[in-house]
Write a structure and sequence with these properties.
alpha/beta; Rossmann fold; 2 domains; two-stranded antiparallel sheet; 8 helices; 7 strands; 51% helix; 11% strand
Length: 261
């Protein structure tokens, strides 16, 4: 094999190994999501690329097919880079004081207690609510197959234990995903012709703020502010890739504007 062949083969094999090991790491956290399978799929993809490189099978693929495949791969890569930049622009979003409402987007419960991801969101909400005593909090999320109670109910209990008065918390307990979090929360806001006078914060982990805000804006909640909560750096690559998939899906289904700020 030539030196470029050897280098590319080593690179693809290394990426295959890292993808599989990272997929195992994500699986072991038992997040309730099967997205870890994507990392195993990437491992297989890189292994296939290594095989193609070793046996020079790229040269046997018709040129038009190679051009189409490379163009599609390049487009996907550019879309991925664009979404990552959009996500990163909202990583440190901080809201103004005295918002009318904050909406805490749902995430997994462990039994009846918030997972680490959800606890980040709730603790961020607690800090804001204590500093802004007139703000009302909407907590969102239904009951998943691996949860003992609805996420909204568990979130409300957690906030009350942290000293937030029950009358300041509105619980939504039916939604199954982020778009439903937004749609069902909107129904709990005061009925009016325009929502532009309501100043609302979207509380979620840093990697999720961009999509949460874009979904809310699509539903006519124009005075929207991101309230960025921390996240675990170990699982950030998985969360960023998952957000890319979520953004593409919500854009295709018309739930958000792909080019929203």
């Amino acid at each position: 094999m030539s030196i470029p062949q050897i280098l590319f083969t080593i690179l693809f094999l290394l990426l295959a190994l890292l993808s599989v090991l990272y997929g195992i790491t994500v699986y072991l956290v038992n997040s309730g999501s099967s997205f870890y399978v994507v990392w195993f799929g990437l491992g297989v993809l890189f292994l296939c690329l290594a095989t193609l490189t070793v046996f020079r099978l790229f040269d046997k693929i018709p040129l038009p097919v190679r051009i189409v495949v490379l163009a599609a791969a390049g487009l996907c890569f550019l879309l991925y880079l664009y979404t990552q930049v959009r996500i990163l622009t909202h990583f440190k979003d901080t809201p103004p004081e005295h918002l009318d409402y904050i909406i805490v987007l749902g995430a997994q419960l462990r039994g009846t207690e918030p997972s680490v991801v959800l606890k980040y969101r709730l603790d961020t909400a607690v800090s804001y609510l204590k500093e802004n005593p007139d703000t009302i909090c909407i907590v969102t999320g239904g009951q998943g197959s691996n949860e003992e109670i609805p996420e909204g109910a568990g979130m409300k209990k957690y906030l009350i234990r942290q000293g937030i008065p029950e009358e300041r918390i509105v619980s939504e307990e039916a939604s199954k995903n982020t778009i439903e979090n937004i749609l069902n929360s909107k129904k709990l806001l005061p009925e009016q012709e325009s929502y532009s006078d309501l100043h609302i914060g979207i509380v979620t982990n840093n990697f999720h703020v961009y999509r949460g805000m874009a979904l809310a804006k699509r539903q006519g909640l124009t005075s929207i502010y991101g309230v960025s909560a921390p996240s675990n750096l170990t699982y950030l690559p998985n969360n960023m890739l998952r957000e890319f998939v979520g953004i593409m899906k919500d854009s295709l289904f018309g739930n958000m504007n792909f080019f929203a700020g």
